[in-house]
From TrEMBL:
NADP(+) binds at residues 18-23. One of its GO terms (biological process) is threonine biosynthetic process. Pathway: Amino-acid biosynthesis; L-methionine biosynthesis via de novo pathway; L-homoserine from L-aspartate: step 3/3; Amino-acid biosynthesis; L-threonine biosynthesis; L-threonine from L-aspartate: step 3/5. Belongs to the homoserine dehydrogenase family. This is Homoserine dehydrogenase.
């Protein structure tokens, strides 16, 4: 049985930006699985700073098991000043999240993020900042984190020339289209159910207009080809105009309607 090295390494000091559903889950895993993580990684991972607009007293359930935490009400302030090795960004979007990324990477603090929207648009500049300051960006969870697929493409397929990639990249759209097929209900009705279940945001534009799929596809294509993400070049369509009749007709013909992200390598023509 392989055993990891028992050599003692200093604990990895982590700052967490955002203690919502995702951030709170991360904090609980770091606390509840601390011994297992240390055993497998060869060093402990200590959550030492958190940033959330709520007072730390309101975060007791999420942060149980973590002592001596430095609390910041401003996540950008934490990214710029906290004594940490890594910042985990869970806020999302382009605004504050990009400031967090710039602040952390600019002073040599590595970044972990699942923010595919930010990466799809700003990967080039963030990569440059990270490389200039000997920092790293970990973003496996941005696309298919539960599979996972990014590391498989980057490392497992390092010797392969990938010419085509396709997949269902958005769970919300998949739920809506599958439910429409199974129940015969219309798009608006099923979308409302998805929102009530917490599967779709309000407004749901990023999901149902195909933007989330385009963000993820640009990242997959970048890893597969070795190029930087080019989200603006992705032709994007969503599922808003798909009716119950469309789904029923496809079913009669033996097909299912799905929102696919498709990337194909096209040889340049001289």
């Amino acid at each position: 049985v392989h055993r990891f090295s028992s050599a003692k390494m200093a604990a990895l000091r982590v700052g967490l930006a955002g203690v919502g559903t995702v951030g709170g889950g991360i904090a609980q895993i770091l606390s509840g699985q601390r011994s297992l993580i240390a055993q497998r990684c060869g060093r402990a991972i200590d959550l030492v700073a958190v940033a959330d607009q709520r007072p730390i007293e309101a975060l007791e359930a999420e942060l149980r098991g973590h002592a001596d935490l430095k609390h910041y009400s401003d996540a950008v302030d934490m990214a710029n000043n906290a004594d940490v090795d890594v910042i985990i960004e869970t806020i999302g979007g382009y605004g504050t999240a990009l400031k967090i990324a710039n602040g952390a990477l600019g002073r040599g603090v590595s970044l972990v993020t699942a923010n595919k929207a930010m990466l799809a648009v700003h990967a080039a500049e963030l990569t440059t900042i990270a490389e200039s300051n000997n920092a790293k960006i970990g973003w496996e969870a941005a696309v298919g984190g539960g599979i996972p697929c990014i590391r498989a493409l980057r490392e497992g397929c390092a010797a392969n020339r990938i010419s085509y990639a396709a997949g269902i990249l958005n769970g919300t759209c998949n739920f809506i289209l599958t439910t429409m097929k199974e129940t015969g209900r219309g798009f608006d009705d099923v979308l409302a159910e998805a929102q009530a279940l917490g599967y779709a945001e309000t407004p749901p534009d990023l999901d149902v207009d195909g933007i989330d799929t385009a963000h993820k596809l640009s990242l997959v294509a970048a890893v597969a080809t070795g190029c930087l993400p080019n989200y603006e070049a992705v032709h994007t369509e969503g599922i808003r105009d798909i009716s119950g009749a469309d789904v029923a007709l496809a079913d009669e013909l033996g097909f299912s309607i799905k929102l696919l992200g498709i990337a194909s390598r096209i040889e340049s023509v001289e």
